[in-house]
Amino acid sequence: MILEINTRSSLTICEQLRNQIVLGIAAKKLIPGEPLPSVRSLAADLGINYHTVGKAYSSLCDQGYIIMDRRKGAVVADALPSGGEFVSNLSKTLLLSAAEAVCHDMDEEDFLELCTRQYKKAKGERL
Amino acid sequence: MRELNLVCFITNLFAVILIGITTTVIPMLTRKSFLFGVKIPMEHQNDTRAKELRKNYITLCVLGTIAVLALAVAQYLFIPDMTLIAVLYFPFLIIAIQMAVYLPNWKKAVKLKAEEGWTVSNSVFADTKSSHSRGRLSDLPKMWYVLSLLIIFASVIAALIQYPGLPDQIPTHWDINMQPDAWTDKSYLAILMMPLINLGTTALMWMTGFMIVRAKLQIDPQNPALSFAQHRIYRRQMGHSIGFMTLGLAAMFAAFGCMSIFPDLQISFWAVIVLPFATMIPLIVVPFKSGQGGGRIKPKNIPAVLEGDNTPEKDSGRGDDKYWALGMFYHNPDDPAYIVEDRFGLNLGFNYSKLPIKIMVALGIIGFVVFYAWITVFLLNTTISI
Q: Do A47 and B332 lie within an 8 Å CB cutoff?
């Protein structure tokens, strides 16, 4: 998978890196068990600081997307459970997005349709 | 003296013409996304003003080369005894002229970009298949180095076997007709010198190859997948080219070693000098044909390029120009990479913010000053004594 980081984005490089890897896992561009590049080599490839990559990896590790294997380094984790804390976090994020949609006078139908489309896109399905 | 001056004069002419040609064609060989070290957007790469700058540079280069040639001829005709001294100031003269031609164009390119409000992508890319982004040591084809080492090993064995029967003086240097013109006392060190030099050269070539496959590459934001695929092919081509040349050099040094230890052996000049130089040809042809970092390899020649689903976002970036002093020297303390692709030319450059690179540059400068002082004294002595 090719990671793209925009150095002028409003998101920090660390957040972008984390998001890109999550997107990659969802779209099956990164498959469970696949090793990720080492912190050192990814930092050098992207021309960014080691610590930024380290931070992104450790946050992904905390959230369970990747695991730190003693021999292989960072490895994509198997599918995650879809309950518990994650759902409550997600509902908070969605609430905010829905509120923004309401503020912009968006129909419920359009909002739901957009949700469906983005879900499919995340899964890597061709639209 | 006359002869020496003539040889020196002709060498100078050749060097000036060669440097002139290489300097002139640089803008045609450099990736189109850079205009004199300034990153410019895809859609403006063939802009009339950009084209004008490139044309302007080429004209100036040709004029500069003619001026230096005229100077060399004038010096030879009017003060022929100073021809040797030319070696001392010609390099500086050439660099000064190159700079005088390049810098105004770089400035104009910076201005052009600012005036037109051209924006380029601020994105950087990496492939999660780590070996795809930058090469690894294993990308160097081992075969060439194994063969070179075998040759060196064989030459050591041959030297040790021949040693007892050798005369007290062994030849170490040969003239153009392959007749020995320098000898040294017989010793183990003397006969093992060539294999040692050979080993050193092979190691140096291996390091150069490693630097080439390891260099960080410039990625086209329009199609990063293609850039990575091109670079993989380019790395393989360069790995083989440099390996081939390593073998050529190893064969050359081994041949010299053989001439030291087999006094009756006659090897022709062509076989010893010209053939090894011929092994350099792929190393020169590949960057020309494939472009820097494989930028010119056509997508249709690349099996299984993943098509990029990348829609580059339009952003208001100036790109990473600020890290490139004068558009030539990369200085980015945040970038862990040591070796990067040049923005002007086909070579590699360094990240000058790194301590080891700084030390290397400092050593290089000290080495140059010492060498320059030595050659000055040497040439002045030669000129005066004749």
A: yes
CB-CB under 8 Å, A50 with B124: no
Residue B127, phi then psi, degrees to nearest 5: -100, 135
Of A4, A47, A49, the CB nearest to B224: A4
Chain B nearest-CA distance from A67, in A, is 15
User: What distance in Å separates the CA atoms of residue A51 and residue B125, rounded to the nearest whole number?
Assistant: 18
Q: What is the pTM of this model?
A: 0.79
Place of tokens 């040094």: B253
**pLDDT mean over B154-163:** 92
Hey, are the CB atoms on A6 and B335 less than 8 Å from each other? no
Domains of chain A and any CATH numbers: 13-76 (1.10.10.10), 85-122 (no CATH)
Helices B188-214, B142-162: axis angle to 10 degrees equals: 180
Nearest residue on chain A to B216, judged by CA atoms?
A45
- Please indicate whether residue B132 or residue B296 has the higher confidence score (pLDDT): B296
CA-closest candidate to residue B331, choices B305, B361, B308, B370: B361
Please indicate whether, in this complex, the C-beta atoms of B125 and A42 are within 8 angstroms of each other: no
CA B263 centroid distance within chain: 36
